[in-house]
Amino acid sequence: MSGLTSTTPIPTDVVVHSKSRVLELQYADDTSYRVPFELLRVYSPSAEVQGHGPGQETLQTGKRDVTLIGVDAVGHYALQLNFSDGHNTGIYSWDILHNLATRQDDLWHEYLAKLEAAGLDRDAPMTAKASGGHCH
User: How many alpha carbons lie under 13 Å from residue 127 in its C-beta half-sphere?
Assistant: First the structure.
């Protein structure tokens, strides 16, 4: 998991745009990024999504219409995002958020390629894990 680095910019403002389903991150250098909720959700840093090691990731589907129903500060280093599908275990440190914001195009391409390789549709509902785990 990414840790906070001394060079990571910290947002000066975070705005939830519910209608357009994006989280806007504004920075002191006057840059701002609008990160879609779906991207935030499918790249959640939680163990539920990322697993506990390489190759244990759970490919997320059916998240196009997910919304943010809450944003909570975690100390001075991260946000905890609460999604409409019940997912709320991801702690998004400032560096994770900045990475998602600045690499959106690459991450979308990577996500869509993983879906295609797995033969999954982006809008397919999530299925319960056979290992007894649960999806929210």
Answer: 7
Distance of alpha carbon 55 from alpha carbon 11, whole angstroms: 31
| pLDDT at 3 (0 to 100) | 53
Rounded CA-CA distance 12/33 in Å is 12
Kindly report, residue by residue over 71-120, the tens digit of the pLDDT. Answer: 999 998 999 999 999 999 999 999 999 999 999 999 999 999 999 999 99
Domain 13-118 is found in CATH 3.30.540.10: no
Q: What DSSP string runs through the chain? A: -----TTPPPPSEEEEETTTTEEEEE-TTS-EEEEEHHHHHHT--SHHHH-SSTT------S-TT--EEEEEEETTTEEEEEETTS----EEEHHHHHHHHHTHHHHHHHHHHHHHHHT--TTSPP---TTS----
Break the chain into its structural domains and give their ranges.
13-118
